[in-house]
Here is the input.
Amino acid sequence: MRALQDSAPSDAELMARSLDDPEAFAPLFDRHAATVHRYLGRRVGDLADDLLSETFLVAFRRRASYRADHLEVRPWLLGIATNLVHGHVRTEQRRYRALAREAARPPGHPDDPGDSADRLDAEALRGPLAAALAGLERRDRDALLLLAWGQLGYEEIAAVLDVPVGTVRSRLHRARRRTRAALGGVFPIDAPEEDR
Amino acid sequence: MNELTLLRDAGPEAPPLTPAARSAARAALLTEIEGPAPRRSRRPSRTSVFRGGIAVATAAAAWIAAVALTGPETADGSRAEPRGLSLVATEEITFPLSLDPEPPGMTPSFTGSAGSTEAIAGYTSPDGIGFTVYLSPEEPLWAADQFQPSDVTGRGTTTVGGVDAQYVVGATQRTCTQANVCFDDLPFAQLVWERAPGQWVDLYGEGSYGDLAALAAVGGSLVDRPQPIRLQVGLAPAGWSVLDWHESSGAVTFIDDQDPSRVLGVQCMPEAPSGVYEMDNGSVEQRIAAVTAIDPAAATEIGGAPAQIVHARDDVDPTIRFWLVAWELPDATVCTVTTPEEFSPADVLAIAGGVAYTP
Here is the structure.
């Protein structure tokens, strides 16, 4: 089984093969659907089910434009997903605001006193964090969430958003500064670092 | 800890990717991969050109007089005369099977595409529990492998309607969110069998339908009786065909046979359950405000309900221009029709007037 997995074609090979043999594209769904859905779900909630489908439909239709030398398939898919989220900006913002309201309610008593401190810390942060996301500029939020949730590097984000790396850095700087400002009064935040 | 760590650890969580949603997305992709060529049965009937058009034409004329809306601008800034279309009656969109008896209190939702034997019917009870019927022409070999191994408690063979079926049973683990909201174990079951030559059924149930015997009973009640989907589009331009329908997002899509990039979209979204903010269907005003208007929106009526229509452009690609009409049904369902800008406003309204939605 291991040998079979090791000999499986790479994502790029499947993409190239799918130009002549469209069915070769299907395994890319099996490999990346969970990752793409999780990214979408954190941004738009249940709407992720529909956008997951749309992401792979768009990816299949645009596979001829994929450039393996520029970007791996996973970030490419996350870029498509990000563009689809743009059509649902209000849904995304409503979700964050709703989560912020939900978190503002008094917390319940934890079942396990042993983890009460961590849980209360997390509960205290959920609202301000969601509110901070709702308040970010769309472009800044894209860069921040591709970094934090998509776990893309700066160069990958630049390729996905079709902007220079310097622009990515400035957007991330702005997004992280505003997020820190929104959270600073609730929870001590360490100095920023060059996370990847 | 910095804000990136916080976003990963304390940021909004994603809902789980359910087997049903995964199956639906995969089926849609496979349909796309197979290509649109064999769209055969959903083509608007060319022999039944809409001849009851007097009422439509009268209503459209009255509307144009009322709002004095004009067609899209050409490249030189002048206004092009919208070209009228020949609207034809469409065939009813159906799912090929029914349940006999019908499960009481459950609402079905259908997904499919024209010319494909792959189709999905999801049945949901008011508490959100239910089952999904997934039809495919080939054995869904991947179906039994889509569960977390730790969730599976049993696999084997049983019979459904006298036919051997492979089953998987199990339960999702109890999970709690950081806000201390917990979800109890949810039993699930899956049955896969070839119901008829070239018709494989993947039946997946949760909760009370996560019981193998209960799910097998559902499988045994499937009968060959097409049932109409809830959203029907009565009129479409001649030369356009239904592409697909996704009732979970309330959408039916038509494309131009000559240019499949030209899309006519119809959507009806019911009011979201209380507290489900991300499925908020919004209002007519919000739908209109969500697009970038080229011209001011105009008030009109669809089936006696207040409506608005707007000539708009895509937010990202301004060369993509379209018409959007939105109206609200008595049960707070919000419907929209989106067409290319080459459609005349009268055509857009006539198509909207032909939309029928059964809650």
About this structure: The two ends of chain B are 48 Å apart (CA to CA).
